[in-house]
Specification:
Two copies of one chain form a homodimer. Chain A is an alpha/beta fold and 430 residues long. Helix content of chain A is 37%, strand content 25%.
């Protein structure tokens, strides 16, 4: 029997404990699959005395995770602390610099420092793996880096945040409004007490920036991601989406345009008969479109101890089997600087909802503002008629330029009968 | 730059030509991803003079594929001839025996001889890869062998044959009957002139037997697969399925039972709100359920030159990168003999459709036959009432044993008012 792959785990939250549990529960299976055991020999966390429901008596405890990353006699450091800076970053950098392979689930860190970390790993001759950082238990990094590696990817997109998808799904199923459903999601543990990281699209943007790098062979470029969250999606919009044959999803989308690579996270109207429209609740999904393979869909649990531990374990199994794949699919010097394709260059169809005082001429004013910007209207929906009361009016456009749409919307917003900021949701052609 | 991975391609049908084209079109991309080029240096096919639309002037031509597998100075032989025996088998065996890695898309061969071939490869110290053999372009072998390798899989199932799914989808969308839609599928090239290989579930059984081996760590056991095709699915059944909230899909299902491993291919009623129910047309999908990860879904094109070439290329890229994964996830001596869980031990809910002459007492007779076998009825549907005419009657059962259901059905078939063989479709709890 070959020597064990020795692993140090930094961070013993639910994912860290789940990883230790998985590696123990599946020890025989993993040994059969790798031809050698994978053993956790060292751990580090903040509070040694906390009962984590897992026996740590046989592993070396380190109070200082960074010192562990430097000194522990292990082959791999698994970083499960989280956060783009501070201890997590120091652990990752130290592990790599000390000649240890690094497995991390830390999307915030990779989105900020992924390229530098990959360079450091390459220099040190070690491997950086992060299957758990994107879409939880779905092996989508592996799919892009290896399974679809014979393809030029033209677009990759997905539901990358389970909290947002849960909120949007529940809003649709119950007709309730955003704030109400968010409170429930917090009570159920699907959303953090400070939900902005999820709800405002930041988490999805981190994951998208990583996916983009792997899919397109470009350096991670988080700052080039256009980010909008789901706070402004109302029950009314969800109702209109249904009437129009769409579902509203928060998507992360990266695609090749004639300008460069477009990266955006925002609520989208997606046609009801597409696979992505059917992905509900906390489930994640990623669609990758390759030039030879066509469209492939990967769906599964995007978070939680079990799924995340499963992804971490797959990285460790790869290492134990001797696989050495470049972090972002190609060597660092082959990763190209990403040329951003800005939102101003975006074009697509739009859903525009106005809240207007129902009086003669209002609709014509909206339509003419669109017309003046050469935006052509595909359909109009109006919920009831109630003179001098506030009613919603929805206009769906044909494909048009984002710039023109924004200008038209600003013009419409100035009309005295338009009593709320107009709401715009992009319609995604999938 | 490292040395090129040299490849010989045996078989230049659409997939063989597609593979040659992909490797050429993506040469730069692949070299960046592997750190070395992948080059087709040798090919073999039946007719040298046929114009295949691809320039073969720079590769060595072999009239004898087996001789090529033995003599060509290559690292890998790609077998794309097809068929469980004959030349394809000889090419595979010869390649491996001659110390060359083997990549094949040949599901029939793997379903029959996969274990022996894996043993031969292991003995020779070479790798056997076959991503293209199951679910075309979807990297599902990689997902099971690597991405989900930290899990005990309890069930794996999927839509493994695009022809059947196309026929069933079209029947549902148009209300037309099986024979009619099959003719159309043949005209469109989605079904062979002899369609039985697809339509009778044989192709899906091959793929399922391979998936089972990878997922459960058992030796390929094709003979243990229970196989039924879709010939008996009628437009009427599809209509009733809709009323009951189901879609009819031909699924391949492998799962752990208290007896052993159950493997079956047959038409299933699947709940409309499951991901698999939404997979339409020629698309394939595989669902893998792991103990840590939960349920993951992989969906995409299951056939065609581009998707299949994409899968072949991913195997070659793995080889070029130095990955060496055991063919069925564990070394051959760790692969266990599969203990079949027979259909007689199966239990589930059933849809039973009778064509009866509408006269008093007929329904009671059916219900009492079920009752005598302790099969409890969940619901009954009857299309119209037309005394002394033939009408369909549908009974949906609660979960029951297959044995009891078969006995009840045989008893019902004997009733003089039942004028066609009763049709039974299993309802799958997903």
């Amino acid at each position: 029997m070959s020597e064990a792959l020795k692993v140090a785990v930094a961070g013993l939250g639910t994912v860290g404990v789940g990883t230790v549990e998985l590696l123990r529960a599946q020890a025989a299976l993993i040994e059969a699959r790798c031809g050698r055991p994978i053993v956790v020999t060292d751990v580090s966390a903040r509070d040694r005395d906390r009962d984590r429901g897992v026996d740590l008596s046989t592993v070396r405890w380190h109070d200082d995770a960074v010192a562990m990353a430097r000194d522990a006699e292990v082959d791999v450091v698994v970083e499960l602390i989280g956060g783009a800076e501070g201890t997590a970053k120091a652990v990752c950098e130290t592990a790599v610099r000390s000649g240890k392979h690094l497995v991390t689930a830390n999307k915030a860190l990779l989105a900020r420092h992924g390229f530098a970390l990959a360079q450091a790993a390459e220099t040190a001759g070690v491997t950086l793996s992060y299957e758990a950082a994107v879409a939880g238990g779905i092996p989508v990094i592996k799919a892009l880096r290896e399974g679809l590696a014979g393809n030029v990817v033209n677009r990759v997109y997905g539901i990358l945040n389970g909290t947002c998808n849960y909120v949007l799904t529940t809003m649709r199923e119950t007709g309730r409004d955003f704030d109400d459903v968010l409170l429930e999601a917090q009570a159920l543990g699907y959303a953090e007490s400070d939900p902005s990281f999820d709800i405002d699209g930041v988490d999805a943007a981190h994951k998208l920036a990583i996916l983009t790098s792997v899919a397109f062979g470009t350096r991670v470029a988080l700052d080039a991601v256009h980010v909008e969250g789901i706070r402004h999606v109302s029950a009314l919009d969800i109702q209109f989406a249904r009437e129009l044959g769409y579902r509203i999803k928060l998507l992360g989308i990266a695609r090749r345009t004639h300008v460069g690579i477009e990266q955006r996270v925002h609520p989208c109207m997606v046609p009801l008969d597409t696979p992505i429209a059917q992905v509900e609740g906390v489930t994640n999904a990623v669609v990758a479109e390759g030039d030879f393979v066509g469209s492939t869909v990967f769906e599964g649990p995007g978070a939680g101890a079990g799924p995340t531990a499963s992804a971490v374990a797959s990285d460790l199994i790869d290492l134990a089997r001797g696989a050495r794949i470049p972090a972002f699919s190609v060597a660092c010097d082959a990763l190209q600087e990403l040329t951003p394709s800005p939102m101003s260059a975006h074009s697509g169809a739009y859903y525009l909802r106005l809240m207007v005082i129902d009086r003669p001429g209002v609709f014509a004013a909206g339509a003419s503002a669109l017309g003046e910007e050469h935006v052509s209207i595909e359909s109009v929906l109006q919920r009831g008629r109630d003179p001098d009361e506030v009613v919603p009016v929805v206009m769906v456009t044909h494909e048009t330029e984002e710039q023109a749409m924004i200008r038209a919307m600003e013009r419409i917003a100035e009309h005295p009968a338009v009593i709320e900021p107009p709401r715009l949701i992009r319609i995604e052609a999938l």
